[in-house]
Amino acid sequence: MTGKTVTLILEPLDGLFFRDGRPFDASTSATSGLPQPQTLAGALRTALMQNLRCDFGKLNSDLERGEPLDAALADQGADLGAIAGLSVRGPWLAKDGAPLLPAPLQLHREKHGRALHLLTPLRDDLPGWRETAAPEWERPLWVPTEAVTEPAGGFITLKGMAEVLKGRPPAADALLSGACLYGIDRRVGLAIKGDTLTGEDAMLYGVGFLRLRDGVSFVAELDGLTAPLRKALDAQQVIAWGGEGRRVRVRITDGALPWPEPPDTPASDQGGTVLVLTAPAFLDGGWRGAGWRPLAATVRDPVPVSGWDLARRQPKPTRFAVPAGSVFFFAGDPPGDLAHGLGSAEDRRLGYGCVLKGVWRHA
């Protein structure tokens, strides 16, 4: 891949709108969630194609004939062809420029206090554990405290995540709630007739836009940004992102985000390694992945992912991803190259499957 890693800072110029694949029509209401990785990858690709004067009609015809995206773009020039090689990671929220990640699900908070604890695999079985359907290698997770706890939730600083990756609970101030970072701006609109551009009687709809608090932005990483593509993105500055044609200002800085360094793997009798998902991932074989056997895992409900394929002018099929914040525990090092990302190469280029490697230790 050509080009160096750069960091993107995305500052909304108004409320943003990201939704799932459920139908949205007049007389209904929809509320934005946080953006999925593919929405940013698609927005960047589209902005660059428009800046480089891509012929979208020809692109659509080439794709319908079965030509791969990289070849179809390269048919219109080398600079356009380089767009297919771009690799995006993120987006993530940031407070005053400092990245924030979804809090890992192994992190628990005491219900009647602020103290934080980490789930770890037990050495021994719980009573009745072997009567469950769990494979023999899987271990139950446990919080080493008598206090009642619950998943911490919210978002964690990179400093706090560094502590988690070392197998230690972070300080309480490493966590921020979603309410501290964003809110929902609710508005009412009127459906418009396409032929006359006049309002439809009694056809109101509601929209909840994502509005970031002061000092909050999004950040992401981009690999493969060649000199011509960087020039085109610098010239663009403002791009459309998400639904309703909402805009964000894009700034580029050289270098990657300051990710925590992975700690050394402990001896097998002292613990093992963890993979913490910082972005959703599509896994073959469900949460256990394909061909790899986690010792334990803590995973939330799957995230439905769909969208609109602008080049092919059709909806994308709905898929279900393991959400960010999910944690996978291994007895030793994770198999293969999982520490470099989960899922297919194409999904990773779109920003899915980002992980951080850490350790867990027996309590």
UniProtKB/TrEMBL annotation:
Domain of life: Bacteria
Pfam families noted in UniProt: Cas_Cmr3
NCBIfam families, alphabetized: cas_cmr3 (TIGR01888)
Protein name (record): Type III-B CRISPR module-associated protein Cmr3
Organism: Rhodocista pekingensis
